[in-house]
């Protein structure tokens, strides 16, 4: 089994930062960046689980749900990752999104 602790730690940190961010920061793009990451991670997980099926897009549940959406998507992905390289790629995606979000 692959150790996905680095991924869950990175996404937990990002989610905590989003929850602590003021509404104005969420409106200026942090929530949109988080939603884009959640969609990317969810799509990745779906492709690994069912490669022959078309991935479904995660809906926009609003800026105050963005933290929860990245947590759900990342934890789902963590369950299906198959290598340390995939974990590293996922962590990098989370870190880059967090930086772009400015949180």
What features would you describe in this structure?
It is globular, with a radius of gyration of 13 Å. The protein has helices at residues 5-20, 23-49, 66-80, 84-101. It is 74% helix and 0% strand. By secondary structure, the protein is mainly α. The termini are far apart.
Q: Tell me the major beta sheet.
A: none
Helix coverage percent of residues?
over 70%
Decide which structural class fits the backbone: mainly alpha
The tally of helices reads 4
> Would you identify the regions where 5 or more consecutive residues have pLDDT less than 50?
none
- How widely separated are the two ends? 31 Å
What is the β-strand count?
0
Shape descriptor reads globular
Average pLDDT number: 96
Write down the secondary-structure element order. HHHH
The rounded Rg comes to: 13 Å
What is the gist of this entry?
This protein is mainly alpha-helical. It contains four helices and no strands.
Write the SSE topology:
Elements: H1 5-20, H2 23-49, H3 66-80, H4 84-101
Give structural attributes.
single chain, mainly alpha, 103 residues
């Amino acid at each position: 089994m692959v150790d996905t602790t680095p991924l869950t730690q990175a996404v937990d940190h990002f989610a905590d930062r989003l929850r602590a961010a003021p509404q104005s920061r969420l409106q200026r793009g942090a929530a949109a960046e988080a939603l884009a990451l959640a969609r990317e991670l969810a799509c990745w997980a779906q492709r690994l689980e069912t490669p022959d099926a078309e991935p479904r897009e995660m809906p926009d549940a609003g800026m105050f749900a963005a933290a929860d959406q990245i947590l759900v998507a990342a934890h789902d992905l963590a369950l299906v990752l198959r290598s340390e390289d995939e974990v590293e790629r996922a962590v990098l995606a989370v870190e880059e999104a967090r930086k772009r979000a400015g949180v």
